[in-house]
Amino acid sequence: MKKLLLLVVSTVVCIFPQNFMYEGTIGNFNSASAVSISPLGFIYVSDSGTDEVLKLDTLGNLLKNIGGYGWSTSQFDEPTDVFAAPLNIYTADKNNHRVQILDKDLNYISSVATRNNDIQETSFGYPVSCAVSNQGDLFILDSENNRVIKFDVLGKFSQNFGGFDAGIFALENPVKLSVSGAGNVFILDNHDILKIFDSFGNGMMNIKLENRFNDIDILFNYITLTSNDFILLAKIGNEKLEFHKLNLTGDYQSTEFISSVFYNNKLYVLTTSCLMIFVKE
Questions:
Q1: How many Cα atoms sit within 13 Å of 231 on the Cβ side?
Q2: Distance CA 47, CA 140 (A)
Q3: How far apart are CA 112 and CA 157, in angstroms?
Q4: Where residue 43 falls among pLDDT bands split at 50, 70, 90?
Q5: What integer is the mean pLDDT of 251-277?
Q6: Which residue has the higher pLDDT, 8 or 160?
Q7: Burial 158-189 (b: 16+ CB within 10 A, else e)
Q8: Angle at the Cα of 75 from the Cα atoms of 215 and 35, rounded to 5 degrees
Q9: Which end of the chain is more exposed for a tag (fewer CB within 10 A), N or C?
């Protein structure tokens, strides 16, 4: 029998400083939708306003951008998510019903698209998020069917989970997914519930959040939850997730947060127009 853990998340005293000082802003976007930082430190941003994916360095230099509206390779129709693995970049190309796979320099490699397949269990449409585990498994958040589709490292369909038959772990309005180093899949559902599955699609936890959030992101051992105006941070690995509300200080323009990533003791906060950087004090 699966055990349901319903946990109300609250902020607690952090074991490391909670204050993050504003350092500056990089990037110039039209309507950014997601950000991901590769283990090598390159920054990738999907911009749904221009239907592009951009690659920047940590100084904000634009190294390359690809895209524009369309359905050909390296074109997008509302890219909603980007995920940076060590060698490849994965983009959820929502209205084209596919995930495009690029190399680290944004050269096109291949696409994953199954909506026109006759086999319903493999089909996904309007993907809103994607991520790859350390084992190379690709997880796609299928918003058309409210479930996750998993492909193995060879690109072969493995399973789907979180659908209407998942009981208490059925997804209602999935927003974003992220995968931990251990292979567990964290899904932000309906903006206020965090659902956690193991790498085989078995439900592990339902966590009721006290606020509504736009995004969840995991990099290395840290997980961020991003709301419109504040960010929670937790370290993965403990039996209990303890989220800490971060105190963002300094002279920065208040605006709606879209996403965030904690990398190398810095917090990168994405807005629709730029990427703000905060340094741990």
A1: 29
A2: 19
A3: 10
A4: very high
A5: 96
A6: 160
A7: bebbbbeebeebbbeebbbbbbbeeebbbbbb
A8: 25
A9: N
Q: Please spell the DSSP secondary structure of 154-179, one letter per residue.
A: TS-EEEEESSTTSGGG--SSEEEEEE
Q: What does residue 131 show for φ and ψ, rounded to 5 degrees?
A: -160, 160
Q: How many CA atoms lie within 13 A of 250 on its CB side?
A: 16
Confidence of residue 23 (pLDDT cuts 50, 70, 90): very high
- Looking at this protein, which amino acid is placed at residue 142? D
Q: How confident is the model at residue 89 (pLDDT cuts 50, 70, 90)?
A: very high
CA Rg, the chain, in Å?
18
Q: Which two tokens stand for residue 23?
A: 């350092």
The C-alpha atoms of residue 194 and residue 12 are separated, in whole angstroms, by 18
**Length of the chain, in residues:** 281
Give the type of residue at 43: I
Given a contact cutoff of 8 angstroms between Cβ atoms, the answer to whether 79 and 32 are in contact is no
Cα separation of 276 and 190, whole Å?
26
Contact in structure between 82 and 89 (CB atoms under 8 Å) = yes
Q: Is the pTM of this model over 0.85?
A: yes
Q: Which two tokens stand for residue 99?
A: 């995930």
Q: Is 165 left (phi over 0), alpha (psi -120 to 50) or beta?
A: alpha
Return the pLDDT at 239: 66
Structure tokens at 94: 């929502």
Tally of CA atoms within 13 A in the half-sphere of 271 that contains its CB:
16
Q: Quick one: which of 142, 117, 139, 116 has its CA closest to 127?
A: 142
CA 92, 98, 103, 108 torsion: positive or negative?
negative
